[in-house]
Amino acid sequence: MARMIRLLTNFVALIAFASAALLPQKPLIAPADEQLSPATSSTPLPLVVWHGLGDNYKADGLRSIGSLANSTNPGTYTYFIRLASDPSSDRTATFLGNLTEQVSKVCEDISSHPILSLAPAINALGFSQGGQFLRAYIQRCNNPPVHTLVTFGSQHNGISEFQNCGDNDWVCQSWDGYLKRNTWSNFVQSRLVPAQYYRNPEDLEAYLENSNFLADINNEREVKNATYKDNLKRLKRFVMFMFEEDTTVVPKESAYFAEYNKTSDEVTKVQERRLYKEDWLGLKWLDEKGRLEFKVAEGRHMQLSEELLRETFRRYFNSNVARDDGE
Q1: Is 246 one of the catalytic residues?
Q2: Distance CA 193, CA 209 (A)
Q3: Digits of tens for pLDDT over the chain (327 positions)?
Q4: 106 three-state secondary structure
């Protein structure tokens, strides 16, 4: 076991190093600290942001996004989800941890927050894996409720491949082999974050039986959780961005809940899947109400321009409940 833990630590360090190239290296604008200020009927709803793999809640690039949100929609209070007060520990939690416990902690943190807990609703922005985690927040607790959810390059239908290893990267190769042989073990499913949203369409039986996270929040098991559907239907808007040249997320169409068959190289759109047709999550209902949007972002995974972010904030987060309830 000690050897396994050492290997896991090395593996996490390796992925963290490799993922650094995917993170914002420079803030878009000068970062600003969160400011506690009471919301009024004329101010935008608070914005909750869940960052992606390898990032941390105090990263300059992430904080600059909060400043951009406030400069676009003055008065926006932005809260960055964190799983630890220490930024390094928060970053480690993007690789290691039990997602069921992590989502539960976030639910408690938000519901007890001195500003967020008093808001009539909040807006939510998820980057990469943070997108499906925010959706889990909505489905499992949603207190306070989310008004608009926007996700960028998220893995709503999971990943079918783990990160590729370099030819001479023996640590990564060792863990890649271990993951492929033990993906559905309790050890991996309760500790390695990306494994908990791994989904291979060619091995659905093992996935449905053993998945710690994704099979549950996608309501794919025989017994459906009606609360998940009811909570997601409360969204005024659910916007999903897929990166056009995304090679980090396999398949990239997972950002749309689409399914990819590696053998036939075919993509099944969400509208053609049972998940949508039988409306396990309320996606069909949202779509018929005009509340579901499928958007394309240019570039590779998490290549976000200030222009795209500002337009997103202006279009989707420039709202308050009093104004939107009249729609």
Answers
A1: yes
A2: 18
A3: 545 545 554 454 444 433 433 333 333 333 344 444 444 557 899 999 999 999 999 999 998 999 999 999 999 999 999 999 999 999 999 999 999 999 999 999 999 999 999 999 999 999 999 999 999 999 999 999 999 999 999 999 999 887 666 666 565 566 666 777 889 999 999 999 999 999 999 899 999 999 999 999 999 999 999 999 999 999 999 999 999 999 889 899 999 999 988 888 889 999 999 999 999 999 999 999 999 999 999 999 999 999 999 999 999 998 765 445 544
A4: helix
Query: Nearest CA to 52 among 206, 204, 155, 196?
Result: 155
Place of tokens 């053609």: 272
Annotated catalytic residue: which of 19, 64, 67, 128?
128
Amino acid identity, residue 35? Q
Measure the CA–CA gap between 162 and 246, rounded to whole angstroms: 14
> Distance from first CA to last CA of the chain, Å, rounded?
57
The catalytic residue among 51, 147, 156, 301 is 301
Q: Distance (Å, rounded) from C-alpha 222 to C-alpha 188? A: 24
CB 53 within 8 A of CB 302: no
Our answer to whether residue 301 is catalytic in this structure is: yes
Tokens of 162: 């783990």
Catalytic residue among 51, 246, 254, 319: 246
Contact 143, 157 (CB under 8 A): no
Identity of residue 71: S
Helix 2-19 to helix 170-182 angle, to the nearest 10 degrees?
A: 110
**What letter would DSSP give residue 261?**
E
Distance of CA 94 to the CA centre of its chain: 11
Handedness of CA 177, 180, 183, 185 (dihedral sign): negative
DSSP string across 126-143: EETHHHHHHHHHHHHT-S
pTM of the model: 0.86
Provide the angle, in degrees to the nearest 10, between the axes of the packed helices 60-72 and 306-316.
50
